[in-house]
Structures are given as structure tokens and as C-alpha cells.
Design brief:
Layout lengths: L2 E5 L2 E12 L6 E8 L8 H4 L5 E4 L13 E4 L11 H26 L11 H31 L1
Parallel strand pairs: 4-5
Antiparallel strand pairs: 1-2, 2-3
Length: 153
């Protein structure tokens, strides 16, 4: 069931953990496990809740999101058409939100050593990803709790 894909000249085999992260708390709200070859934009609509803002990269230009979502996409430069100063400013604001999702994957990869899974089959992989995401949320909740207690002291 797993598939091959290539990113940056490096070949990968397996599955991907696509997540929807709360931008204030950095907790994983929703996730979807797909094969490595599936485009991330194909699972964008099912991951998003209505009436929330979606911040994504330039690969999602023109992709659909749930009805009622505010869609904020990084602007892309093209050959002989550089970004304007306004586009650069918009990209800076979107990047400040998007980096919070990268913190989630960074924590899972470095602190939890959870970016790889040796399971065979999508059902076992989904179970592993579910437990990894749950454990991340527990660790993040503990961090939030400690930060709130420290702010009261």
C-alpha cells in the first residue's frame, strides 16, 4: 500500500502524517494518514474545519478548502515576475503562523523520534501515527500547563 515519492532529489517510501494544528496552542486537532506519493492538497479540505483560517504554502494555490474557511496562501514568484513588496509582507505574516506547524513536526522528529515507522500496511501505520499524535498532544498539554503555572508565579 505504501508508495514512492521524490522531494528535493531524495526518494522516500512510505506514508505521510498530514495534520491540522491549532495556531495558538500548537495542539494537533485533526490528522490524515496518506501514502507518500499523494499530494498534500488532496487532504486539505477534509482536515479543515469551517469558519477557521487556513495558512498554507504555494503548493495549495487554487485548491479548495471547507466552506467558510479563510484561505491564506503563500505568494509565489515566477520567472521574470518577482514578488512585490506587498506580497513579501503578506508572506512574512503567513510564515509566522505556518512555522508553528513546523514546530510540531520538529518536536515529533527530534524529541519523540517518531518520524519513521516500521509497520507494514496502512492500518498499522495509522495506529502508529494516531498514537504518535496523541503522545505529542499529551506532551504539548504538559508544556502549556507548566507555562501557565509559571506565569502565575
Amino acid at each position: 500500500e505504501a508508495r514512492w515519492t521524490q522531494k528535493g532529489g531524495i526518494r522516500y517510501f512510505g506514508y505521510k502524517n498530514n495534520v491540522c494544528v491549532d495556531r495558538k496552542s500548537k495542539l494537533i486537532k485533526n490528522y490524515e494518514v496518506t501514502t507518500a506519493s499523494m499530494q498534500d492538497s488532496n487532504v486539505l479540505a477534509p482536515l479543515c474545519d469551517a469558519d477557521e483560517a487556513v495558512f498554507d504554502d504555494s503548493a495549495y494555490v487554487g485548491k479548495s478548502v471547507a466552506e467558510g474557511c479563510q484561505h491564506h496562501t503563500i505568494r509565489r514568484a515566477f520567472r521574470n515576475k518577482p514578488l512585490t513588496e506587498t506580497d513579501k509582507e503578506i508572506n512574512r505574516h503567513i510564515a509566522k503562523v505556518r512555522c508553528r506547524v513546523e514546530h510540531v513536526f520538529g518536536f515529533i522528529e527530534t524529541s519523540m523520534k517518531g518520524s519513521t515507522c516500521g509497520a507494514i500496511g496502512i492500518a498499522r501505520t495509522k495506529t502508529n501515527v494516531t498514537l504518535t499524535n496523541l503522545l505529542y498532544n499529551i506532551c504539548r498539554f504538559e508544556q502549556i500547563k507548566r507555562l501557565r503555572l509559571a506565569s502565575w508565579a
